[in-house]
Specification:
Blueprint (H helix, E strand, L loop, with lengths): L3 H12 L10 H8 L3 H13 L3 E4 L5 E4 L2 H5 L3
Antiparallel strand pairs: 1-2
């Protein structure tokens, strides 16, 4: 299910230290990866579905890397 763009986005979110409090929006991600924001959103919906990436909606929202420990119930 993961493709090259997914891998690049995951690396980018990790490098920028994203979190729920500090997400990265599709515009920022798209500018860095030279891809349109709408394509970023369509691709990241797959990562959100499998809970590798979280999404914060609304003003100041964006995408952030989910912590692996929280998915497994451990820290």
């Amino acid at each position: 299910m993961c493709n090259y763009l997914h891998e690049e986005v995951l690396k980018l979110l990790a490098q920028h230290g994203t979190s729920y409090a500090k997400p990265m929006n599709s515009q920022e991600i798209g500018e860095i990866l030279k891809v349109t924001p709408s394509y970023i959103r369509s691709q990241l919906s797959q990562l959100v579905k499998i809970r590798q990436v979280g999404v914060r909606r609304g003003n100041g929202g964006g995408y952030y890397l989910m912590k692996k420990g929280l998915q497994n119930g451990t820290s």
